[in-house]
């Protein structure tokens, strides 16, 4: 067993270290490396106002969603699985009734990651003092899980349920598909959260031993497997581990994993082909799926599984240098050419991934695809956050907000009982948009929980320059919250933001720092906003508005949020979508029963670019949202075509006005109010 | 070794048997079975006029394409492969540079079928007295191949290059993927043609022994593998074998193969899952790809690989009863909902197959897909022919003609040097529409050759009622040809058809039968034709025009072929296509250089429903075709969008008139005249 690394400093001391280290430079025998602030480590400086839009959403997660998810994990068997007992789902053989996926991967191969994300989410909420009615139960569950995880670890540091219980000989034989390193990444993130929450090293030490196992077995040296994870995740977790351990070997290891990916060696063109050959696996799978077809720095087109792609980009963005340049290039391409208007990613259900070409973004299965996995949008948010930590950019911020408020946030029902994995832009046939209670592979639900748990970390970033007594504050999300910023020696500054976003464009800030300090403020100037005004002088800075403020100050930021009808790039689909501010709107059957009965799924219903809408409010499970209702005739319809019709002699298109006033609901709030469950987000352009 | 079956009657006697058996009923201990006339057995009664459109095309195949293909088979190694020597392409491991496909199937696994189709095609042309300048070479090649094939057969009747040379232990272990039965089907079809051409039983006996091998190893009885071919083909070949051997066991065997497909047994849900388990193959592949997800009679949605689907339908149509009902239901669905306007099938390149949903028919890779394999359209023609042999139906005839004249015929360049496999409706990015010299899996080129070789068999069907001295003639394709119909006892009738089709709607017929005979004629009344007139009284009969004629008669059929702009079902794409008669027209860069330079691939170019066209003629490699040229302004264009543009605030769509007159060429003749090679078949509806 490898000797354990030096212990990380306790959390309090880390905070100080971070604050004292705002230069971001760590010196040592290796090249200087930027020390990042991660939202996961800073989130708890922020208290989100419970009586606000975002607060109400977080309350649903704290009070109900986490509990639902814990129950589902117990029911599924993943909770108990660390006891290393046999479970029927371990049988991957394509037997009648067996739980095997098309790719031969049993769902249980993801179990560590599901549990890990729940532990991580629970730690964040509990650290925030939330979920208080469940605290005893959650604490007990966390303790039991950590104990089971510790006991499941093998003497050599290996830690994986499936390959310990079912297939010990298969260990590390298939890094491409078998998720050993992916699971380790999520457990490591959970361990970091657990260490933060409890101050106990128990779980973190388990995971450091597990990382050391991989460092011994998988690496660049002779006798090691020159591989890398088929599903990235460990990489981004290792960067966060390094921020705690400051162990250069952890940093070197993630650099190895990132740089080795997609490399051809004299013995083989691709590591995944090589390990497949060693397994006598004759399938010559396309490794674009794993973003392993060429080195990251050479990739020009974002391809393959969307979640894998973005998790990889998070780590590449963190790595800096040419890896970050490549990550930004691929992120920009994804946003420009492969993103749904909701901030969803991945049009291809068959591999949960990107179409090869840009602008191929079908709305529904019946129109050629659509997937838009919740996790992909969360991972895109994570990627955007890394870029923004490096350099502010208004368009990247807008994407973070868009993906969060629409594609990601819609991944749970407001009653906390059901979740979505794919988030299709339109239903079709007998599909509905209703969410499901759980999934065999249930990566998305706890991923959304941990994202809500650390929301404060996404809200703003702060850097303290003690020498110049200056606090730099970059506001990324406009919401209602208070942040307490430690300035060292027990002194703090506070900033309180109150915002009507995402529905009203009025936001106020109260800044309070000790005398002699100043604030270097950056406020967002969103692309969707008009008539942006700030109560203090500002200068435009790459999509942000910069102001310097004295220690104590009040600032208000105001803008209008007109309805904007957005057009897609018409290369493959010429579609219009109603938006207002960062919110994307969708027509669903519950509000438009008569229209949906005549045109189920609103097929054949088009929109005019000159449509106007009236606003109304509705409160759903404590969350108040703005609905939009069109004027009569703003939507039009094609004469209902015969579904049994093939090609016909063309007649001039006749779009007839729809007399109905069409009511639209925010995308994230869809499928929460019953009805037939059919919907459509983007409409044909009605002439 | 199983005892050989009773020898079939020699070809002359078969002809008599067929003529004497017009009742279609074969009696025996088994239920009565309709005895079909196959185009492969009747084609040689027809001589296609060399100085006609179809004759000119056949001349290209007879004089040049067959020779090109023979050279390519030699170059590829498939010709020599029956000598059972090692070949580098046999290595299926995913090694650098190795010839392995994504599915792990080496291209050489298809070699028997490629060679078989070439032998079959050469036999048809040689029987027709064509390819005379190559007769000696082709005869020698056929003889050498048949000798090699015979020598490659194993003592037990097994015949497969790969599993004899490379992997003897793999024999019959993977019926789903490994093409042993598929290859047998094509070789059996070749053997039937060879027997017809030479009168020698050499090849046919080899293949009967091979069929007997499968009958012994794969079947319903204890100790047998209860499987069926992953790629249908043997089934339809077995029906044709039965028509020669009249061996009820051959008929029973094909019925077993068809009825067992997709059946759940107590031991397993699906045979392919079962055999995968026996191979320790953990992949739980979707067997929709092989149309094996449920019994054929229960299938409601045509799914999976398009060529496999249609080959299966050919056999199911031949089987009659509920299998035929299911085949017709699936065929009708494919034509209505999953067919490109050219008669192409298969929108999904990733698995060369059908989209799950109807009307998802993207035009290009950049628009979401498009495949339209040449073989799929040939197989659709074959399916249509089986239905028409059973019952005339004008819409089925129209589909046969459409798929043949557009999707299939375009599979070879008119200079006989290059072939297409996928036939995409539009090019994109750096793609061109130019064909390729050969393919690693080259099923399509020789498939097209054999189709042209037996064209006379698709042209019309004849049934002789000797008792009533009546000749029933059903005309399926309008072209210039003469058919000599044996009436028994050496007496014949002739019918000569002269037609301007597919470009001019004037056709004449001269009927000459011995005195006392009459003709029961059915002429097509195509759906695309207007002002249809016949020079004799007719009655409408399900899309055909029926007339009774005396022994000697002249008939003329006339109709107009107006340009028709066809609209797709707008469920997924609202597109317009210019057609005239059975010919689909396409814009390609060579005729429209300036427009294609401004709008490469004609992206952003739309069409109005009121466009008018002028006609002109051009002769390409001896084939005269009609081109269409629009008036200025009939096509329109969107303001060129920024390819780097994501979502933008919508403005009213502005379609500006294209000043250029746009020239369109028949789809089959595309990519034959140089230029940039970009094209577009279907256009957005320009308001």
UniProtKB/TrEMBL annotation, chains A, B:
It comes from Apiotrichum porosum. Residues 51-452 form the Non-reducing end beta-L-arabinofuranosidase-like GH127 catalytic domain. This is Uncharacterized protein. Residues 1-12 have a biased composition (Pro residues). It comes from the Eukaryota. InterPro entries: 6-hairpin_glycosidase_sf, Beta-AFase-like, Beta-AFase-like_GH127_C, Beta-AFase-like_GH127_cat. It holds the Pfam family Beta-AFase-like_GH127_cat. Residues 572-675 form the Non-reducing end beta-L-arabinofuranosidase-like GH127 C-terminal domain. Residues 20-38 have a biased composition (Polar residues). GO terms for biological process: carbohydrate metabolic process. The lineage of its organism: Eukaryota, Fungi, Dikarya, Basidiomycota, Agaricomycotina. Residues 1-38 are annotated as: Disordered.
